[in-house]
Design goal:
This protein has 15 helices and 17 strands. By secondary structure, the chain is an alpha/beta fold. The protein binds 6-O-phosphono-beta-D-glucopyranose.
């Protein structure tokens, strides 16, 4: 079994401690780290929310949440973990917020990190931080964790960053993108920078194009109100897909230090090609799902899951984008991004499609070129497709087969949820997997331009049946370039 290095004792306050994120992700993540021996017995996990709960009621809620996710849990383990849990009812934006009560729950050890995790609506980030500032909760050891979305455009993102930045210094702000905590996303860095093999090939000299797909079969999951105001571009592209693109395309950083890594990612974001009303029409597709299937179950259309005025919603639940990184390494190499709800299945992959050999010795028998497929989920792993001769006589037949680095085949361990890694990085003060202010703002700048180009050009919203790979126009986007989306090995 893997050995985990314990982290130093810390206090974490989860604002929004009774909410969905806390119950589905944060509390179970802390429980798992505790089970693996990474948390000190003196760590304090303080739920903070407006709901009036006693400590025992919070512990009962946390137990239900953790046991719903953790396998092989034992009552004795839970008892030990429950000792770490505390709760305080608090409305962070109210004049009479009980900051003294919260301070009373924090450890007196002023060397330990105190983490404030904002698992609340972003609408109260600034007001809550201001109140924390007035109450003197921001000490040199405090760290602030912000969940996405940080704003809905560049302007609102700047307002949040300014507001929280007035209370907490930038190097104590941890902006989470949970994709950066996923195992295979981190493996992407190891693959690129821990092997000599790929680096010489990783550029326009050898790469034909790159595809990044994050397909989901789920729908709105009770978040219709939020989602309808966001759409796929704000919900997924601005953060997760652009982060994947950055890690795929960035230059090797000088070190794994937070700023060295983030500096390289920002350069990619700044080099991304923008759009205008005309290029947006030829290089992007926006679509909304209609009625269809999820496996054998019928699924209502997006519109039918909304109520009232939202029935005329033009929000995109799918987007496909062709872009380019205008720098020395990548000039001329298209990057195709695609994400959607209610697609045929849940799969996220990065595909590096290499160019064909300069001279095809094998003619028709060799139709393929090398392809590196990095699968984020499910079945995490890396597949390097090579051309190989099919054995036997009867003419030369060539097959494209993967060298297979499947996680499941090679490691029989539980894959920790992304939040487990990220929470421990906050305790360690390691900023490498978190977004810096300018990174978030550069991503919004590019997204704002895309959304404005759609508006300007009255970009049509296409439809696709739930349970498919998206609209026909998405396939056509590739087809026009003589390419096609990789839908897995057939
Ligand atoms: C979230 C989005 O950030 O990521 C959701 O808001 C999406 O809409 C989710 O479903 C996907 O995350 P994962 O880890 O399930 O791929």
């Amino acid at each position: 079994m893997a050995k985990f290095i314990p982290v130093q004792p810390f206090d974490i306050v989860i604002f929004g401690g009774t909410g969905d994120l806390s119950r589905r992700k944060l509390l179970p993540a802390l429980f798992h780290r505790f089970l693996d021996g990474q948390l000190a017995d003196s760590a304090r996990i303080i739920g903070a929310a407006r709901t009036k709960l006693s400590r025992d009621e919070f512990i009962a809620m946390a137990k239900k949440a953790c046991f719903a996710i953790s396998k092989n849990r034992k009552e004795s383990d839970w008892k030990n973990f429950a000792r770490l849990l505390h709760y305080i009812p608090i409305d962070t934006t109210a004049d009479d917020a009980d900051w003294d009560g919260l301070k009373g729950l924090l450890s007196q050890d002023n060397t330990r990190p105190v983490i404030y995790y904002m698992a609340t609506t972003p609408l109260i980030y600034v007001a809550s931080c201001q109140a924390m500032g007035h109450a003197g909760m921001n000490t040199p050891n405090s760290r602030l964790v912000l969940e996405k979305p940080i704003g809905t455009n560049l302007e609102s993102a700047r307002a949040i960053n300014d507001g929280v930045g007035a209370v907490f210094p930038e190097n104590s702000i941890f902006r989470i993108d949970h994709y950066l905590g996923k195992e295979t996303v981190q493996n992407l860095m190891v693959l690129r920078f821990g092997n000599t093999l790929f680096e010489p090939l990783w550029s326009h000299h050898n790469v034909d194009h790159v595809q990044i797909t994050v397909a989901e079969n789920i729908g709105l999951e009770g978040r219709a109100d939020y989602y309808d105001r966001s759409g796929a571009v704000r919900d997924m592209v601005q953060n997760h897909l652009l982060q994947l693109l950055c890690l795929t395309a960035m230059e090797p950083p000088n070190s794994l230090d937070g700023d060295d890594v983030r500096q390289e990612k920002i350069k990619v974001l700044r080099a991304l090609n923008g759009f205008d009303a005309i290029t947006a029409k030829t290089q992007t597709v926006r679509a909304q799902y209609g009625a269809g299937m999820d496996g054998d179950d019928p699924v209502a259309s997006y519109i039918d899951t909304l109520s009232g005025e939202a029935k005329s919603s033009q929000t995109e639940t799918f987007v496909a984008i062709k872009t380019e990184i205008k720098n020395w390494r990548w000039a001329g190499v298209p990057f195709y991004l695609r994400t959607g709800k209610r697609m045929a299945g849940r799969h996220s992959e990065i595909v590096i499609q290499f160019k064909p050999t300069p001279h095809n010795l094998f003619g028709e028998a060799n139709k393929h070129a090398n392809k590196l497929v990095i699968r984020l989920q499910p079945d995490e792993g890396v597949h390097m497709y090579m051309q190989i001769k099919e054995p036997g006589p009867g003419g030369l037949r060539i097959k494209s087969l993967p060298l297979n680095l499947s996680y499941a085949d090679n490691f029989s361990v539980r894959y920790p949820d992304a939040y487990e890694r990220l929470l421990m990085d906050v305790v360690r003060g390691n900023l490498a997997l978190f977004m810096r202010r300018d990174e978030v703002e550069s991503a919004w700048k590019w997204v704002d331009n895309l959304l404005a180009s759609w508006d300007e050009g009255d970009q049509p919203i296409e439809t696709y049946a739930a349970g498919t790979q998206g609209p026909m126009q998405s396939a056509m986007l590739m087809d026009r370039d003589g390419r096609s989306w990789w839908e897995g090995a057939s």
